[in-house]
Design goal:
- It contains ten helices and 13 strands.
- It is an alpha+beta fold.
- A seven-stranded mixed beta sheet has the order 8-11-7-12-9-13-10. Strands 1-2-3-6-4-5 form a six-stranded mixed beta sheet, with helices on one face.
- α3 packs across α4 and α6 (204-216) runs parallel beside α8.
- The longest helix has 17 residues, at 49-65.
- The radius of gyration is 19 Å and the shape is globular.
C-alpha cells in the first residue's frame, strides 16, 4: 500500500522513518537531541478496563524504549460508543493509562476520541534521544547474539480470555508480563551501546525478527527450545485458540524463513502469535552478551538468549 505513495522529499534530520519498519520515528533537532515519535492503539484484550488502559499505555511507550529513548509526553486516542455502554468503563480505561504515564513520568497533554461501536484505546507518545545512540532494526551484525527480554504468548491467551477458556493463573501471568515495562531494557540499550533492538508486538517474534534481519541484511537463527513462553500458552495453542494474525503474520514473513522439521508446529504457532506490550529483542556482540544478559535478568527474570546473527544466507530467518 505504501509503495504506491510518492517518495517523500529527503530530509537529513529524519534519522529513522517508516522505510525499515522500526518501532518509532526519530527526528533530529540538534546534534545532541532528537525526537522519538510513535502511535499505537488496539481493541480490548483483557476483561478489566483499568488493566486494559495500563497495558495500552505500556504498549505505546515501549516503542520509544525500544529505540533507547526516554518518553516525555503522550496523547490519548480512543474509540468508544456514545450509546450502549457505561462511560464509567472509559473512565477506568483512562485511569489505568494515566497511572502508567504518571509512574513513568510521561505527561498526558491531550487526546482525541471518536464515537465507534468497537472500543479502541492507545496513545501517541513522544520521547527524546541522543541521535548518536539510536537502536534500530538495521543495526544487527554477524557474530552477535539475540536476547528476548520477556516470554511470548499474550495473543493466544487473549483469545482464551475472550472464549473463557484461559485458566486464571495463565491470565494472571500474561497480564503481569504485559505490565512489565521496557524502560529497564532501554536503560540497558544505552549502557551497553546496543545498536539493534525492536519490541515484539503485532507481527510476532518471527515477524519482528524478520524485520531486523531484512533491515540489517543478515540471517537470524533462533533456537526454538530457548524461546521463553508464558506458562499455559502452548496448551492453548495446541487447543487451536489462535488469533487471526496467525495467518497474516505467516504471510508477512512469507518464504524468507526456514524451519527445522523437528520444531513442534504448535510451538511455531506461538512464534507467529501477535504480542501486546511484548518484550524487546536485542542484538549484542557475543563478547558483551553475558554482561547485558545479567543486567536484564535483574528486571526480566524470564529473559533468554534465543539465537544468533550470521551472514545473510538463503533465508532471513532460520528456526532450529
Amino acid at each position: 500500500m505504501l509503495s504506491g505513495l510518492e517518495k517523500q522529499p529527503f530530509d537529513p534530520n529524519l534519522l529513522v522513518g517508516f522505510d525499515q519498519a522500526d518501532d518509532a520515528g526519530v527526528y533530529r533537532l540538534r546534534d545532541d537531541l532528537a525526537l522519538v515519535q510513535t502511535l499505537d492503539f488496539f481493541t480490548p484484550i483483557v476483561d478489566d478496563p483499568f488493566d486494559y488502559g495500563r497495558i495500552a499505555a505500556l504498549n505505546s511507550i515501549n516503542d520509544v524504549w525500544a529505540m533507547g529513548g526516554t518518553p516525555i509526553t503522550a496523547m490519548a486516542i480512543t474509540c468508544f460508543p456514545k450509546k450502549g455502554l457505561d462511560f464509567a468503563i472509559l473512565t477506568e480505561i483512562m485511569r489505568g493509562g494515566l497511572s502508567v504515564l504518571t509512574e513513568n513520568k510521561v505527561a498526558l497533554v491531550g487526546g482525541h476520541s471518536v464515537d465507534n461501536e468497537q472500543i479502541m484505546f492507545g496513545y501517541s507518545v513522544t520521547g527524546i534521544i541522543d541521535p548518536n545512540k539510536v537502536a534500530t532494526n538495521a543495526g544487527a551484525r554477524p557474530g552477535e547474539v539475540i536476547i528476548l527480554t520477556k516470554p511470548i504468548g499474550t495473543g493466544v491467551i487473549s483469545t482464551g480470555i475472550k472464549l473463557a477458556r484461559a485458566p486464571a493463573k495463565v491470565v494472571e501471568e500474561s497480564i503481569a508480563t504485559m505490565l512489565t515495562p521496557g524502560k529497564y531494557a532501554a536503560e540497558a540499550i544505552v549502557k551497553f551501546d546496543v545498536k539493534a533492538a525492536t519490541d515484539v508486538t503485532g507481527f510476532a517474534l518471527l515477524g519482528h525478527a524478520w524485520e531486523v534481519a531484512r533491515a540489517s541484511q543478515v540471517t537470524i537463527e533462533i533456537d526454538s527450545a530457548r524461546v521463553p513462553l508464558i506458562n499455559g500458552a502452548l496448551e492453548l495453542a495446541r487447543a487451536g485458540l489462535m488469533t487471526g494474525a496467525d495467518k497474516t503474520n505467516r504471510e508477512y514473513v512469507g518464504e524468507e524463513i526456514e524451519v527445522a522439521s523437528t520444531v513442534d508446529p504448535n510451538l511455531l504457532k506461538l512464534f507467529y502469535d501477535p504480542q501486546t506490550a511484548g518484550g524487546l529483542l536485542l542484538s549484542i556482540s557475543a563478547e558483551r552478551a553475558d554482561d547485558l544478559f545479567a543486567a536484564l535478568r535483574q528486571n526480566y527474570p524470564r529473559a533468554e538468549i534465543i539465537g544468533k546473527v550470521v551472514e545473510r544466507g538463503a533465508r532471513a530467518i532460520v528456526v532450529k
